[in-house]
Write a structure and sequence with these properties.
single chain
C-alpha cells in the first residue's frame, strides 16, 4: 500500500503552490490506481477455492477493487 504525506503545509504561494498541489494530487491519484491494480492482480491470482474461502467469486473482483 502506498503512502504519501498530506499534512505538509506548502510555504509557496501563487503558481508555485498550484504546481505543488497539482503534483501532490497526481501522486495521490497514481498511488490509488497502483493500489487498486495490485489488489486486482492479487485477487485474480487466487484459485476459485481460495476466493470462496474469503467469500468472493471471480466475478466479484472488479466490484471489490472499485471500492478502493
Amino acid at each position: 500500500m502506498a503512502a504519501y504525506e498530506t499534512t505538509r503545509h506548502h510555504a509557496a504561494t501563487g503558481s508555485a503552490a498550484r504546481i505543488g498541489t497539482m503534483f501532490t494530487t497526481a501522486v495521490g491519484a497514481f498511488a490509488a490506481w497502483n493500489d487498486t491494480r495490485q489488489t486486482r492482480k492479487a485477487l485474480a491470482s487466487l484459485t476459485d477455492r481460495e476466493l470462496d474461502d474469503i467469500g468472493l467469486h471471480r466475478g466479484d473482483i472488479d466490484a471489490v477493487t472499485r471500492r478502493f
